[in-house]
Amino acid sequence: MQLTDYEKAMLNGDHGAAKARAMDLLVRYGQALGAERLVETRNVAGAFNASTPSVKAIVEQGFDAVYSELNLDSDEVVEIPRVVVNTTQLITGIDNDNWRVQGVEEPLIRMQRASEQFLGERGINPCATCTPYQVGVVPVMGEHCAWMESSAVIYCNSVLGARTNVEGKESTGAAALTGRIPYWGYHLTENRFGTHRVHVDIDVDDMKDWGLLGYYIGEVVQEDRPVLTGKLHHPSMVKLKHFGAAAASSGGVELYHIPGVTPEARTVEEAFGPHQPVGTIRYGKAERRDAWEKLQSATDRKVDFIMLGCPHNAIEQVELVAHLLRGRRIHPDVALWMHTPRAIKQIADRAGYVEIIEAAGGVVMSDTCPAISRRVPEGVRVIATDSAKQAHYLPAIAKVQGWFGSVQECVEAAISGEWQGGL
Fold first, then answer.
1. Model pTM score
2. Chain segment 380-399, per-residue pLDDT in tens
3. Which of 26, 235, 325, 349 has the fewest CB atoms within 10 Å of its CB?
């Protein structure tokens, strides 16, 4: 790889052992990818926190040891300095406030809080969300980033027009200390043009339909780059959030274009650039039903658990649920957990939304979700969710049956204890 003099100095240890280990990792990583060089990044979002039983033995050696092993792939324990770029801790496994509701053991929450203090002292911001762009981490168009989390990556690339591949704990850990990441994949302009045209023949407007559309497209194009045209009502951030998460779950989509909506595609021609689409996919009533049926893994209509907020809910989503639950009571046999970033929860609390949801019997959580924590209420057999991503993953993770539907359908199921949703 071609390294600058500064990068060579970091690799040689002139800037400390931690940066030397980080550069060694990035060089090996870049060589494996075929990258010719590194690119400067000032925006990192990764997983740094220690909050699982599997890392307890490492924690006993100190948090320098945790970062060394998990974020630098280093057998040698090195002292971790302050990070050199804006760095964000993504979603974690534990809600710092509602850990008892999750069924978390007290030693784990103490370990997480100590880990967050260690990371904060080194400049890593504990946003603890899968949607950092909702709480102020908003890179500009063309900015090179190093992000984890598939739903965040597709939003970063597509909606913001910033540039990142799906990174891991090690590469983001190294990028935070060096401000570098291998220059390959979606960092290169030539890899960002569309591959498939997807023409939507039916109206797609509400969040449920954006989730279904994303789920269908991801399954069809897999890791390619769809360009969407047709009957698409101009989407909001919330709809694109759910669309991208669904497409990244059923396939591996990291970038899409909607001409006139996403910043790198003012027109269809601009979306494809110098290339011709490899084919045109049509999305209509049959395709919508196909996606919906694949997201229903349940047969029992008696629900035990309602999960809302994957990706983490925006403030307008919290308000909607509060509106739907105002003056009502969730069925005694049903648990409702709603997930939102901590910063947004504070706004919801001030507006009275949290009080309304809790008065109805629900819980508003931050920092985590059941797919990450792998924790659901005890005895749950059947879930319902408004998230195509959660409907895709949670049944396998938690060994439960799952229904997918709209926010309204999920809230009504929480009240009645019965799933009545459908197309």
1. 0.96
2. 999 999 999 999 999 999 99
3. 349
Task: Please check whether residues 235 and 327 belong to one and the same domain.
Answer: no
Q: Look at the alpha carbons of 101, 334, 207, 353 in this order and tell me if their dihedral is positive or negative.
A: negative
Sign for the CA dihedral angle at 102, 108, 112, 117 comes to positive
Structural domain includes residue 104: yes
d(CA 325, CA 370) in angstroms, rounded, equals 22
Contacts of 24 (CB under 8 A, 6+ apart): 11
Please give the Cα distance from 35 to 390 (Å, whole number). Answer: 34
Q: How confident is the model at residue 50 (pLDDT cuts 50, 70, 90)?
A: confident
Last residue of a domain, one of 277, 294, 311: 294
* pLDDT value at residue 266: 95
The secondary structure element, H or E, covering residue 346 is helix 342-351
Answer yes or no: are the C-beta atoms of 311 and 240 closer than 8 Å: no
Return the percent helix, strand and coil in the chain, to nearest 5.
45, 15, 40
Q: What is the pLDDT of residue 55?
A: 87
Average predicted confidence (pLDDT) for the chain: 97
Cβ atoms 321, 290 nearer than 8 A: no
At which residue do the structure tokens 């799906």 appear? 166
Residue 413 in contact with residue 303, Cβ under 8 Å?
A: yes
From CA 170, how far away is CA 31, in angstroms rounded?
A: 15
Claim to verify: residue 338 and residue 284 sit in the same structural domain: no
Residue 286 lies in a domain: yes
Among the candidates 254, 279, 294, a domain finishes at 294
pLDDT (tens digit, 9 = 90+) per residue, 65-86? 999 999 999 999 999 999 999 9
Q: Does residue 250 form part of some domain? A: yes
Checking DSSP bridges between strand 124-125 and strand 86-89, what pairing results, if any?
parallel
Contacts of the segment 163-167: beta carbons below 8 A, 24+ positions apart = 163/187, 163/192, 165/254, 166/254, 167/46
154 and 226 within one domain: no
Run of H or E residues at 283: strand 279-283
- Separation CA 390–CA 13 (nearest Å): 44
Statement: residue 192 has pLDDT above 90: yes
Name the residue range of residue 275's domain.
193-294
